[in-house]
Write a structure and sequence with these properties.
This protein is mainly α and about 130 residues long. Helix content is about 70%, strand content about 0%.
Length: about 130
Amino acid sequence: MEEKLDMLQVVFDLQKKFDTEIVQKRNLEGIAPDVWIQKEVLAMLSELAELLDEVNFKWWKNPKEINYDNIKGELIDILHFFASMCLKIGMDAPEVYERYIQKNKENFLRQYGQSAKTGYELDKLSR
């Protein structure tokens, strides 16, 4: 599993390098982290809409052939903004990894009714 963490670290390192260069070259110094996150959420929403367009969500329109390469590209665009937002609030790759592992465990517990949070249990589906 350590190898996956290293790959995630590379993603975060490259995003940090890109963000730093964009801020410098576009004279964006001094923007508060909360304002950055607002802008990046909007950018991510735009990318999510582009992803949605790739999967024929418009039931009133003739479907087009699914282009999985385009879907993958949109997901990577979303990852760029996600990593950037994490960095803006001081969350690094190891913390993202650890929080993901914790949340994944909690999600399974919820599905099997073993969490303090209720309303997710799988057995409720059969009723």
